[in-house]
Each structure stands twice: as C-alpha cells, then as structure tokens.
Write a structure and sequence with these properties.
This protein has seven helices and 13 strands. α6 links the parallel β10 (183-187) and β11. Helices cover 25% and strands 28% of the residues. The protein is an alpha/beta fold.
Length: 275
C-alpha cells in the first residue's frame, strides 16, 4: 500500500535541459527540473525504477534510516516541495482550490530575503535552492541520505547558490536543531508513523526556539501521526489544503506523468494559530 501511494512524484513543470555538472553521480544519469515558474532547477536521478524494486523487496523504510541506500523517493521532486515553493516564491493562492485558507499561510508569511533557513528531509532541495535564489542569507539543506545531498550540491554550485550548504541530519535522532534559524521547512517527509511523529517533535523543538515551521504533505501516509503528535504535545498549528496540478516523475515507471495532488500545508510557531 505504501508503494502504491508513492508511485507518482511530481513537479510543477516538466523536465528542462539545463547544463549539468556533473552529468552523473555514483554512475547514475542525472536530469534537471525547474521549480515552479522560476528559473531555478533541481537535479534528479533520471531513472529510479530499479531503486523502487530494491526498496520494495527489502525491509520497510525505518525511522532509523534503514533502507536509505536504496531510497528511491528523495531523489526526485514531490508535490509537497512544489507547494512550499509556491509560498516561498509568493505566487498567489487560488482560493477556489483551497480549504481552510489562513492569512498566516499566505506567501507574505515566508519572507526569504536575508533569512536563515533549514530544510528537513530536503530530498532534491527544491525549497532550499529556491529560497537561496530569493535572497536567503543561509540555507541548510539536510537529509539522512547522503545521495540526495549530492544532488542538491550538484544543482546549487552551477547556479551560484552559495547560500546553500548540505548537512547529514536525521530528524529521528537526538541531535538538536540549530538555534539561529528564522524558519524551518519540511516537505513530504512522513513516509511512516515514526517519521511523522519525529517531525512533530522537531517542529515543537523549533517552536520552543522561537522558530516558525512550515510543513507540506501530499502523500498522506503518516499525516495523521504528525497531527496526533502535535496534539499530544499541545502544539497549536494552522492547516490548509491546496490542490495543485503537477507533471513529474513516476518513480516506478521511469516516465513523466501528470496528476492533480491535494497538499496539506501546516504552519507551527506563528503568533496567531488555530487548532
């Protein structure tokens, strides 16, 4: 059931032919994909169906990082990252396709200029790269999978996005978050209940540090675990749902697909919150 839910990984625009340096990582061919309507591009693996096969026949993806070497999902862009990118780039939200819209989840609530940002489970780093292009002072693109961080670096360097640094960081660990961030981002990182609950603990940690968090989830596998952890810890949050149309990589088929995706967006640690 989890694999079926993760068949489609989508971005707001189809692949573009941007110059890539290097053209391969760990012997695997790369390709680029633009982020929304911006000129910023991410670097993805061009083919991941073999990784899906290995992952589906191996142990469950565990919160402690088991299976990270064959993780086929962090190496392509997902709808949650595209939804957060819309906020970062201050694109207008279509109220006809949103439920529970709150002014605190409008684009103006995520100013990137001179901001210090950390992205958890960054994958290809779409939000980190876009934030840097919008003037962020420092962006930490973090993930427990070193391969995804190599993809982020391969995209950041040729685009001159020097504000982006990569960091191996397991959000399920006891390692503390940096305390000097202006906000925290996470998109489509809840692959199981343990990860959903770990993310809930991390955004609570950020809240106590005075750092707002913005979370997007399109896969809806462990969203309830994330929400339950927030409620268990009496952490107030804002939630809205946005429907977006995406073209992107069907990870098990190595082809482009198009679909509509309902993305849940959360804000934690703002001044005026509900729930």
């Amino acid at each position: 059931p989890v694999l079926a839910a993760l068949v489609f990984a989508c971005a707001t625009r189809p692949s573009q032919d941007s110059p890539l340096t290097p053209v391969r990582i760990r012997g695997r061919k790369l390709r680029s994909r633009t982020v929304g309507d911006s000129a910023v591009y991410v670097v993805e693996l061009a083919q991941v169906s073999d990784l899906v096969a290995k992952w589906s026949h191996g142990p469950e993806l565990r919160a402690d990082g088991g299976g990270r070497d064959v993780d086929p999902f962090g190496v392509v862009v997902w709808p949650g990252a595209a939804a957060l990118a819309r906020l970062l780039s201050a694109e207008a939200v279509d109220n006809n396709t949103c439920e529970g819209v709150s002014s605190d989840l409008n684009p103006s609530s995520l100013p990137c200029g001179n901001a210090r940002i950390m992205e958890l489970g960054c994958g290809t780093g779409a939000c980190s790269l876009l934030a840097a292009s919008l003037g962020a002072k420092r962006v930490i693109a973090s993930d427990q999978n070193p391969l995804t961080l190599e993809l982020v670096a391969a995209a950041a360097q040729p685009q001159g996005l020097d504000a982006v640094t990569t960091r191996v960081f397991d959000m399920c660990s006891s390692e503390p978050l940096p305390s000097d961030m202006d906000f925290l981002l996470a998109a489509d990182v809840c692959y199981n209940d343990a990860l959903g609950r770990a993310l809930g603990r991390r955004v609570e940690e950020a809240m106590h540090l005075g750092i707002p968090s913005y979370v997007a989830d399109s896969v809806n596998i462990a969203r309830n675990a994330f929400i339950d952890e927030l409620q268990l810890r009496s952490v107030p949050f804002i939630q809205k749902t946005e429907t977006l149309s995406f073209v992107g990589h069907a990870v098990s088929l190595d082809m482009e697909v198009e679909r509509a995706s309902n993305v849940a967006l959360f804000a934690v640690g703002l001044n005026s919150q509900v729930h």
